[in-house]
Amino acid sequence: MRTPLRPLARILQARQEGLNPDSIEKENLRIRHEALREKARARAQFRLVVLCASFVMAFGAIGARMGLMAATEPVEPRSRAPGAEIIAQRADITDRNGRVLATNMTTHALYAHPRVMVDPKGSAEKLAAIFPDLDAKALERRFTDGRSFVWIRKILSPEQMQRVHEIGDPGLLFGPREKRLYPNGSLAAHILGGTSFGAEGVHSAEVVGVAGIEKALDARLRDPAQGTKPVALSIDLSLQATVEEVLAAGMSMLNAKGAAAILMDVRTGEVLALASLPTFDPNNRPNPLVDKDAEPGDSPLFNRAVQGVYELGSTFKIFAAAQALELGLVKPDTMVDANAPMIWGKHKIKEFENKNYGPLLSVSDVIAKSSNVGTAHIALMIGPLRQQAFLKSLGFFEPTPLELIEAPGAKPLIPKKWPEIVTITTSYGHGLSASPMHLAAAYAAIANGGVMIKPTLLKREGPTTGVRVMSEKAARESVAMLRRVVTEGTASLGEVPGYEVAGKTGTADKPKKSGGYYKDKVINTFASVFPASNPQYVLIVTLDEPMDTALSETRRTAGWTAVPVAAEIIRRVAPLMGLRPKLEPVAPDAVTAASN
Amino acid sequence: MTEMVYGSNPVRVSEPVIPKWWRTIDKWVLTCVFVLFGIGILLGLAASVPLATRNGLEPFYYVQRQAFFGGVALIVMIAVSMMPPVMVRRLGVLGFALSMVALMLLPLFGTDFGKGAVRWFSFGFASVQPSEFLKPGFVVVVAWLIAASQDLAGPPGKTISFALTLVVVGFLAMQPDFGQSALVLFAWGVVYFVGGAPMLLIGVVGGIVAAAGLVFYESSEHFARRIDGFLSPDVDPRTQLGYAANAIQEGGFFGVGVGGGQVKWSLPDAHTDFIIAVAAEEYGLILVLAILALYGVIVVRSLWRLLPERDPFARLAGAGLACIFGVQAMINMGVAVRLLPAKGMTLPFVSYGGSSVIAAGITLGMLLALTRERPRGQMSDVFRRGR
Fold first, then answer.
1. DSSP secondary structure, A353-416, as one string
2. What is the pLDDT of residues B186-210, one digit of tens each?
3. A83 in contact with B at a CB cutoff of 8 Å?
4. pLDDT digits (tens, 9 = 90+) for A478-501
5. For chain A, which has fewer Cβ within 10 Å, the N-terminal or C-terminal residue?
6. In chain B, where the domains are located
7. What are the extents of the domains in chain A?
8. Which stretches are transmembrane (chain B) (predicted)?
9. 3-state secondary structure at position A244
10. Is some CB atom of chain A closer than 8 A to the CB atom of B155?
11. Is A432 within 8 Å of A426 (Cβ atoms)?
């Protein structure tokens, strides 16, 4: 497109005069250019002033900030880890009397900033001298390969810390660490479980529960809102120590592989002592077994009292008797058929050592003599449906609600179908597997007059309520039958003068992994209640593969193994619990004569 | 009579070069540069000793090198400042072309000195960082293009210069060197701003930059951590920033005394990026304010002298050079006082570094050349003012 020449009037005039219009056009262009430049210059001037002002302000701000910083006192450098602070505080755990079971101790972790180390080689050698498990060469390599941070130890003792201080290398640094301390060592180890470090920073580390009540109550123990208010357990430290001591002695005398004991208050459901042997030190938790073929029970970490799901044997017989009494099917002196062996279909029900207590036995004698056949007949009177409902109400179909992380995992093994043969075997404790804790809770229900209460490891203020599972009368008569087991029956070694021990023995053959049962491997249980006239406590003692070789023959029945151990425990713990022994009344005259 | 007999003295068509230079040069800026260089050597005596010790060299090795490179830089500066604007433009274009080629060759022949970014050519006794030399030439080229675009029927200089900027930024980001990329973008922005960028565009670009920053913050872990570290009121004392802040506080108003500073032993970059911390610790706020004032005088005075400038090229190039010089100093010191997020940037003439100081010499030489007093415009301009 042709651009018109401007200014047109002058151009036209020039053309008329025959002059060259180009010079006019050029002149016009020059003027326009000048005007444009002038405009640009004015704008640029303003913008240069803006730039000047910005620079003056920026430099001024830097100077002012510099002045402010120079005017403030330098503070001791205190760095804060970015992000959320790691919550390191953890509440203490005490027994029911406030004695400390778990607390925290401030220790230090050791780390290194290799870039500021003066003598990496020398420091590595000196560290290896302090900690024999460290390798000087490997440490030196980590110090010199260019990394800027190296963890060396998670926990230092004060002595070790002092010796590291004495190396004097500025690149070796300490971070405070809360360490969970169990001052009683292995005592109550399976209840407490243990802890390890969670999120770790230089300045603190999270202590998280890994087992037992430490894990089950982890949220409560670390709850900042609760502060460091301790958690009181139902455990009594003296009772726990006594139970563990006697149990350990019994276990070694009877050559048992393991043992467990539970002492429980029948009215509140509080567990006063809970022991499982072999045990471990929660301050230094052993590693779990790595061997896949190993049974979990082989590890000391295994809590037999809660996790050990066994067939509990004849200790179950009392449930059949109690239910029959409750249903009004029998009275304690009702005679039942006890003629052994009993044939049921293709099964043959025999007594221990093929004895025959028959042809007839009273219900009380069935329990006292531990007659399989008699119990089977009682169970058949009850029938499968009512038997299942009763066992369910006693808690045998669910894991125990104990405050241990292991408890929910210990599910009882229940027969899938429930024909009458299962009713028979279950009545004397075979076919249904449950933990000693289940047994303790069920016996507590019989002992306290028929109320099923929730067992707990936490201290309870006052009595608690539960679901009634049988009448008080049936419960009282059941306890009387259990008392006869000790006075006249299979648990005669369980008598403790003055404490009226009542209980029921149980000897179950250990099931093979491949199916069937071992002939010479048994689990012996003694479930006891004392004192019989006013039952207050339940004690369950379980021994794994015990063998009494004291006399010429080898005995594997609970009457010879678990019962004496339980009796010794009761003899020692009953006075500790303030239980007054019921002795023969002393003639008033004799007292007078002596005092004179 | 003598002239008649012996012939006349040859008539001087112009003044001798040196006196003319001395008459027209901005002596304030010149003085400030010399003083800054002196301060740089003084601080180098303190700040570079630990580095020399660490590298097993004699204590003042780096000071000697800096004195040598600084001498070269000052000579270059004076030589460049003697050039007329047209020569400055030619030198700038030539320098830009050469350093652009060098920049493109970096991925092939460059070295990263183990720092993760390929930015240097190594020549045995010294290394060269092309991006330092690129900046002054780049400013000159951009100013030339934008000035040309202001002519009637001139080339579309703004578009061309923007395309050029993108190419340069691309190459710098490849190294990667985001600090220099940002500086190059900033230089283009300043020249465009002074050259008449529409206000609407400035607003829109500002908005886009803010949005892009937000997107980067959300997407880049590294970037977000830098910004978070900058925004958080507490500074980890084990970082360079922490040491620098502590040094400034230790120094107070009058410093801990010559040679008494500690920060230089802890900071790896004490002689380059954090030299202001060394100055603050040993000589106190006094010296820091003096340094600030020197940079302020150089920048503001140069810009002020460009106000009546009639030559668009000289105005734009001068403004761009003064601003990149000032901004570099500003970023360096702003980081040390935590007004700006951490970004490695040398303090021109003061920090140690051969490429840096010689490039600063070229920049200042060009700036001095462009701000020299020259006959301004034509008589008509003077007359027109009265209208």
1. GG----SEEEHHHHHHHT-HHHHHHHHHHH-HHHHHHHHHHTTTTS----SSTTGGG---B--S
2. 999 999 999 888 888 888 988 898 8
3. no
4. 999 899 888 888 888 888 888 889
5. N
6. 14-136+243-372
7. 1-42, 93-232, 239-282+302-576
8. 28-47, 67-87, 93-113, 133-153, 159-176, 183-216, 283-304, 316-337, 349-370
9. helix
10. no
11. yes
